[in-house]
Design a protein that fits this description.
By secondary structure, this protein is α/β, with parallel strands linked by helices. The protein folds into two domains: 2-171 and 333-351, Glycogen Phosphorylase B (Rossmann fold, 3-Layer(aba) Sandwich), CATH 3.40.50; 174-331, Glycogen Phosphorylase B (Rossmann fold, 3-Layer(aba) Sandwich), CATH 3.40.50. The chain is built from 14 helices and 13 strands.
């Protein structure tokens, strides 16, 4: 198939990944290429040049409009709309069999767009007002919509999802996250270092539990980093930097427990399954899809309870590493995910008015 992969443009689709959405699009492009599909990545122009790249914007959003996400800046909105509108036009004229939409733009959801090219839209965020109506209005035979967990499905469609909507769990290549049968007794945390990821909660819980903790990730929220995280570093609490995938996997694999501390209803939690693949059980805050994804590989604490999260660290350390790894192999591998994507592409093409399925 000839596939247009339309990505989010806040950050480049390149390593080291700023977050899960960037990792999702990069691994999807790589995986589909490896399966023999022709993939064109519509993303920021400073994304990974290994892919056939058709830039939505010349450079990623945060470089041109730093710190303006969620501010309602009219100039940013116009900038994004112009880029995505032009990209959608090129996709419609480009002879694509299907478009996989991983953007947060409302424009690819319009029925005129999905009727032009069969479309699969993957939602990576909880419902919010700027997108909710467009998602619901975009349900159509020529459009399949996926969410990453049952919890996210209920959030987007509390009265029940239409048949065009389904759960598509994220997947990883276990070879990228090698299993290690023992750790060094320490804890690890990784992700975007922002308030809603709860980096400060991981530090507080590790201190209460008396365990060493290393943090990894991008310090994209400078104020939060300087005021809430950096002052807490020192002694057994350290920052290990923002690493590429292979380096991060090696660092995570050395630890004995992974801390997962969302302060919002996390739709999935890709970092958790990456750590689990390495063999780490998880001590996590029970929000969003955490329990659904982590399952028997984790110990959980209610939101806002520091003592319970510290206690969860001790309980998680007693969970066998092999069990965490095997849960990923059963449910969250790259092959399971790509099989599901290909099935969605075939399904939406059969349902499309053009009936293309070759």
């Amino acid at each position: 198939m000839r596939i247009a992969l339309l990505a989010h443009v806040r950050q480049p689709i390149a390593q080291p990944f700023k977050g899960g959405m960037e990792a999702h699009s990069w691994h999807l492009a790589r995986g589909l290429q490896a399966r023999g599909h022709e993939v064109v990545l519509f993303a920021s122009g400073d994304s990974d040049p290994r892919f056939a790249l058709d830039p939505v914007l010349p450079e990623h959003q945060e470089r041109t409009f730093p710190g303006q996400e969620h501010t309602g800046n009219p100039a940013l909105i116009a900038h994004l709309d112009a880029g995505y509108a032009a990209a959608c036009d090129r996709i419609a004229a480009g002879g694509f069999d299907v478009v996989h939409n991983n953007s947060l733009s409302r424009l690819p959801l319009a029925r005129g767009r999905t009727e032009a090219v069969p479309t699969v839209t993957s939602l990576h965020v909880p419902p919010y007002d700027a997108l909710r109506w467009f998602v619901h209005d975009g349900v159509a035979p020529s459009h399949r919509i996926t969410v990453t967990s049952q919890g996210q499905l209920r959030a987007w469609f509390p009265e029940g999802a239409p048949p065009e909507v389904s759960v598509l769990h994220n997947g990883i290549d276990p070879a990228d996250w090698p299993y290690r049968d023992r750790g060094d007794g320490s804890a690890v945390w990784c992700g975007r270092i922002t308030p809603y990821k709860g980096t400060h909660l991981a530090i507080e819980a590790a201190r209460k539990a008396g365990i060493a903790l290393t943090l990894f990730g991008s310090t994209e929220d400078a104020e939060y980093w300087e005021q809430a995280v950096r002052p807490l570093l020192g002694g057994a609490i350290r920052y290990g930097g923002h690493l590429d995938g292979a380096s991060l996997a090696a660092e995570i694999g050395r630890a004995s427990v992974f801390l997962f501390t969302p302060c919002w209803d996390e739709p999935f939690g890709l970092v958790a399954i990456e750590a689990m693949a390495c063999g780490l059980p998880v001590a996590g805050i029970d929000r969003g899809a955490a329990r659904e994804v982590i399952g028997e590989a984790g110990a959980f604490a209610p939101p806002g309870d520091d003592e319970a999260l510290a206690d969860a660290i001790g309980r998680a350390l007693a969970i066998p590493r092999r069990g965490a790894h095997e849960r990923v192999l059963r449910h969250f591998t790259h092959d399971v995910w790509l099989d599901a994507c290909e099935a969605l592409y075939a399904d939406v093409r059969r349902s499309h008015p053009g009936g293309r399925d070759r």
